[in-house]
Task: structure prediction
Amino acid sequence: MATFADPKIVPAETARSAAREAAQQHKLIVVSNRLPVTLAHEGENWIAKPSSGGLATAMGPILKGSGGLWIGWPGDDGTLDPAERDRILHSGSEGYRYVAAELEPGKAQAFYEGYANQTVWPLFHYFPTRMNFTVESWDAYKSGNHAFCRAVSRVSNGEDLIWIHDYHLMLLPDCLREQTRNAKIGFFLHIPFPSSEVFAMLPKREAVLKGLLGADLIAFHTHLYLQHFRASLLRVLGIESQIDSLEYDGRTIHLEVLPIGIAPEELGGLIDHGPETAKYLQELRQRYKGQQIMIAVDRLDYTKGIPNRMRTIRRLLTQHTELREKIVLIQVAVPSREGIGDYQALRSELNETVGEINGELATPHWTPIVYLRQGVSRQELAALYSLADIAWVTPLRDGLNLVAKEYCACKPDGNGVLVLSEFAGAAAEMGEALLVNPYNEDNVAETILRALKMDTAERQARLIPMRERVTRNNVFVWANRFLEKLMASGQPREVAPALNFTELQKAYDRATRRILIFDYDGTLVPIADDPTWTRPSDELLRNLSRLTSDPANVVAVVTGRRARDMDVWLGHINNLYLGAEHGLMVHTPGEPGWHTLKGMNPDLQWKDKIRPVLQHFVDRAPGSFIEEKQFSLVWHYRRVEAEFGSWLARELLALLENLLADTDARPLHGKKIVEVKSSWANKGQFASWLLDRGGRAEFALGIGDDATDEDMFARLNEAGAFTVHVGHSQSNAHFRLHHRVGIDKLLADFLQ
Ligand code: ADQ
Result:
């Protein structure tokens, strides 16, 4: 009976057809920095050269089946006539369309080599000291993303599946989202997402995160990267998330862990069925007879740890002279990003180091390091993997690393050893490999020694399960899972329409009696780190005074704050109703002081029980503090380190639910606060009271930004009011304002 471990059980074709089926309902648009073909000079002419690789192999059948297309930069120098360029691209196409993203002349290089490869790439790979940032490079990054956005918009009908790849295009999801709410936008990050501590160093970090949040699905290679992303959202934007999703902008954004795979047959198939590969292999075996071969295949990049590997082999051959003439390291390194100084320096460093080692240790019959600074064909690559006793895969940091998987695919008998860096994302799935810390060169040398001595039984016991997994979780399955997730995501929830200022103004002007209720923090004034800093601006005070001076208006500000604060800040405005402590305390114009809402006389004994609990949390979280109001207690944690604060808040909420079970008080999780208050004290009660007092108003308006305003919206909706939610979360309000600065405009307009 076939088991799930049987690689044949999930043949590529099955996975392909499922994805194709999914994509058939919508057109699929793949967007990546580079197209899977490169325009290159051949003599006088340009030709389209296909680039091999798993991604292109996986996407091909799905794109063909869905009438889809691939958008990217084709690598030309901008001198080609667009029509001619499209004709050449078309001639190289594999049954689906390639569309060239039109980067502004002269900007392509700045886009690719600037913010993407000199800021994001080094930082995300934990090399902050290699990070370069300039305002110009950021501008080029933004304009590059906008150019891709225009390219997508030109071909998309707004209902497509759009799959964006990688760190060059992190602003694109949001650019596209601004133009369409219905397209399903997925983003896959091919590189690591660094720890929030490191991510916080990124210049323009907020814009990058907001850019990504335009997507419906964001996927990473490993669980750790996903956790880092969530922690960064919390730390940088204060956005809480679930393990697999978050709510933003009235949408649910799904988060996924989907390590990319390879097309196992594309390389592995060459071993048995590729005559060219068989010939290479035969020659190589002949040439390296009696020697153990170690293979390393990398792009020439400082993240790949190539100099460390060179130092390690020198150490091995110096300390274990018996290995001389017995082992050979074949290092294949294809040059990349040669316009960037760090890459040029690496190239020179390696030329020198390899030259030195070979000069020092080689004999007339033997060269310890065979250094190929070039790309090799897939046929040669398959032969090299197949030949090698050991794959030496020790990047200092790598999103995943496909070489580790390719090696397994090219070892049908499992007789090989994978030495793998624990800082490659692939390590999360390839636990049977010999995992090493590449920074500990002694330890790597010992591990290589162990691999050289490992018997066939252990080699196979380790490699075969990995090979099976690589075959099963291939790139087709990966693409299929991504597209299935994308299809299932992105059902936009009912989102209230944006507030139409003109309509509102008309209704306001028509009415002879009006009620206007405003929340304070986050609505009339911005949220501040310290609640005592949110004084009203002079402009706001002027506007409120003028609104209240119109005898047709009943104007109120209602807040969760203490009456005392409201007195200080707004108490001097004539004719302004004030509600404090969520409307439980009321100040009526013309009457002295404050009173509770009629009939409300809460039992406050729970306060004595809760105060010491909150004090304990203050002691644990420096920067947090307790605010005591007449009818509630609040723990503020805005100044506590974001992740720690959120973790403690969850613990506190669970504790309070228990402690308050037999009282009528309830804990409430607000923006960086946990508040305990009587459950019946809410802004809905205040709204009812004001509607009664206000008499028959022809126009009513309620505006607020947080969860405590929802009761007010519900009550005002019953009265046919304009209710307006400020921000992105789900709300009972009929209308939405994206940002509170709109309120200043609104007040100013009313007064015109
Ligand atoms: P890369 O950094 O390019 O990719 P990697 O995953 O190793 O890294 O892929 C390299 C590919 O290029 C492999 O298919 C390899 O065979 C091929 N290659 C490398 N050198 C070559 C040479 N000299 N000749 C021929 N072929 C060569 C990024 C991330 C990775 C992530 C991939 C896929 O940095 O961490 O695994 O995307 O998501």
User: Anything to note?
Assistant: Residues 53, 190-191, 260, 297-299, 332-334, 375-376, 381, 398-403, 406 surround adenosine-5'-diphosphate-glucose (CB under 6 Å).
